[in-house]
Amino acid sequence: MRHIVTSILLTLLLSVGGITAAQAQGLPTTTASSAPAEDVVEINPSEMTSEAINAMVARMSDDQVRSVLLDRLDAVAADGTAPEAPQTLVERVSLLWTAFSQPLLDAVRKLPAVIPAQIEAFGNFSAAHGGFGGVLSLFGVTALLLVVGLGVEYAVRTWLIKVRNPQVAEGDTTLREALTFLFKRFLREIFGLVIFYVTVRALGRTILDPQQATFVAPFIGYMIWMPRIAAAFSRFLMAPKRPDLRLVNVNDRWASFIHRHIIGIVVLGGATIFVVQFNVLNGVPAGETRIGFWIDSMVYLYIAYVAWTAREGFADMMRGDDPDRTEFDEAMARAYPYFALIVAGGTWVLVSIIIGLGKVQLLLNGAHYTTMFWLLIAPVIDTGIRGLVRHLVPPMQGEGAVAQEAYVATKRSYVRIGRVIAVGAVLALIARAWNVALFDLFQDRAGIGDNLFSFAMTVIVGYVVYEGVSLYINRRLAAEMTALGMSQEDADNEMGGGGASRLSTVLPLLLVTAQGVIIVIFGLLSIGNLGIDITPLLAGAGIAGLAIGFGAQKLVTDVVSGVFFLVDDAFRVGEYVEIDGTMGAVEKISIRSMQLRHHLGPVHTIPYGEIPKLTNYSRDWVIMKLKFTVPFDTDPNKVKKIFKKIGQEMLVEELYKDDFLQPFKSQGVFDIDDVGMIIRGKFMAKPGKQFMIRKEIYNRVKAAFAENGIDFARREVRVALPEAAKDLPEADKAALTAAAAAAAQQQQEGEGAAAPSKGPD
Q1: Which of 115, 287, 386, 583 could join 578 via S-S bond, C-beta 3.0 to 4.6 A?
Q2: Cβ atoms 573, 616 nearer than 8 A
Q3: pLDDT (tens digit per residue) in 337-384
Q4: Are 290 and 106 in contact (CB under 8 A)?
C-alpha cells in the first residue's frame, strides 16, 4: 500500500514543476486534526527522490499521507484549470476567428508534406502486408470479394426482376403506377446491396486476416457501399432513364447530370474518411499532413460546382409543376442554387471552427456531412410535399369561386403543415447526427443550445396544431358557404336574404378563439422551454386581467350579451335585421359587436350590449302583400282570376318556382277610397327573394290588366259648372278648368308635405 502511495506522491510532486521553494518546503505541513504538531515532517526540494519520499512516507501517519495527497491533487487541479471562457462579444468573435483561421493556416503550412507523408503511409502499409507482393495479393483478394459479391447480388436481383416484378411499359403512367414501380425497384436495389454486404462480409471473414480487414472493410464501405446507396436513392428520385416515371420536374439532361454528380460527391466524401483512417492506421497522424482537410474542402467545392452548373435544373425541380404555386415557391426555386452554395460554404467554415476548437471527435462519424445532406435535401422535400399534396388533397367540394378558393386554401394549409413537420424531422435528424439526446432535451437536462432546440420543437408542434385546427374549421366553413349555392355578389344583391347557416356564423368566432388559445398555450410552453420561469407571466396576466375586468365592464357586457345572442340564434351573417330603428344586413360579427350594412350603403357598428330589441326579417319565410287600385266598375272576380293565373304561371317558371312557399293569389277588395277599389294580393317566399318576385308580379299584372281592358284608378279633378255657365265660350270653360286643376294640385302638394316621410321599401 505504501509503495502505491509513494508512486502517486512522486508523480504528483514531479508534475508540479512550477511550485516555489517555499511551497515545496511547506509541502508536508498540512496534517490531520488528530495528528500532533511535533510529527510535522519537513523535506528539502533538492531531496525529492524516490528514496527520500519512501523515508518520508515511512515516518508519516496515514492521516498525514491522506492530507498531503489531497493537497497535491488540489494543487494539480488548480494548476490545470481551463482558462475562463470569453465573456464579451468581441472575445467570442476573436475566439471563433482564431479557431477558423488556425486550421486553414496549418493546412497551408503542411501542404508540402502531403505527398511525402502519403508515400510514407503507403510504405508502412506495404511493409505491414509483406511488401509489394503482399499488397498486390491484398488488392487481388479485394477484387475477388467485389466480383463474388456483385455476382451473387446480380443473380438474386435478376431472379427478382424476372419472376416477381415485371417492367412497366414506357408511356403515360399515373402517380400510383410510377411510385409502385420506383419503390419496387428501390427495394430490389437495397435488397441487392444487403445480399452484396452479407456475401462480402461472410467471405471476407473467411479469407482475410484482421490486419487485412482493417483496409478492405473501410475501402468497400466508404468507396463502394455508400456511393451505391446514394445511387439507389438518386435513381428513385431522378429516374434518369425513365422521364415518364420521374418524380421531380426536371428534364433528361439535368436529371442525368445531377444523378451522376450525387454519386461523385458521395465517393469524394467517403474518400475523405477512408484516407484519414488509412493514414492513421499506417503511422501518419491526421494532423501531420491535414490531407483530410483538403479532400473535405474538395467535397464542398464539388457541391458548389454542381449547384451552380445545374442551377437551371435545380430551379425547375424546386418549382415543380403545381399550377397553384405561390410567389414564395417561385422565389425559393430561384434561390435554391444560392442556398446550396451557402450551405456548402457554411459547412466548410463550421468544420474548420470545430477543428480549431479541438472538437475533432464530433466529426469522426460524419455529422457534418449528415447535416449538409439534410439541409440540401430540405427544399427537395418541400417540393415532394407540394407534389404529394396536389394528389392527396381532398377534392373540391361544390362549384364556384368560393369552393375554388377553399380548395386552394386547403392545399396551402396541407403544404404548410408538411413543411413544418419536415423542418422538425430535419432538426431531429441533425441533432441525432451530433449525438444530441432528444429525450434529455425534453427533460430540461442540458444547456442553452438544447433549450433552443426544445423551443423550436415546441413552436413546430404548436404551429402544426394551429394549422390543423384552422384547416378543419375553414373546411367546415367553406362547405357551409358552398352549400348555400350563392356567390358573394348574389348575396350582396339580395339584401335581406336568408343569410348564412348558424354554423357558418359561429365558426369564424370559434376559429379566432381557438387560434388565440393555441397561440397563448404554446407561446407560454415555448418560453418555458427557454429556461424562463413563466410563473411571473401568469401572475402578471392574472393581475392585468383583473384590472381590465374592473375598468372594462362595458366590454364584458358586450361579450356576454353577444354570447347569448349567438346561443339564441337571434341573427346570422347575411340576414336583414332592425335594431332600435337601424336596419341593415348582418355583414360581420366579432366577439364584441356586429356590423349592419344598410341597403343604401352605410355600415352601422352596434355593440351587443346596446341591443334592446332585434327584429329579424330574414328568418324562415316572408309574406309580401301588394295593393292595386282599380276603378269602381271593375269586377273583383275577374281580377281574382287574373291573379290566380299569374300565380300558377310563376310556380312553373324555372327562375321563380324554387323561391315560392305559397303562390301569388288575390285577397279580394281590401278598401275603398275616393279614387277606386283597393284590391290586395299576397304570396309567401323565401327571405330575400320577395323583391325580385314582386317586381315580376307588377310587370305581369300590368300586362294582364291591359290585355283585359282594366285600367288602374287614378286621381281625377272634376269641375261642376252651373247651368248658367254652360253657355260660356270654350275659352272661358278651359280657363275655369285650368284654375280648378291648379287649386287641386296645390292642395295635393300641401297634403303631401304635411304627411310624414317614409324610408325606402
Answers
A1: 583
A2: no
A3: 899 899 999 888 888 888 888 777 777 777 887 888 888 887 778 777
A4: yes
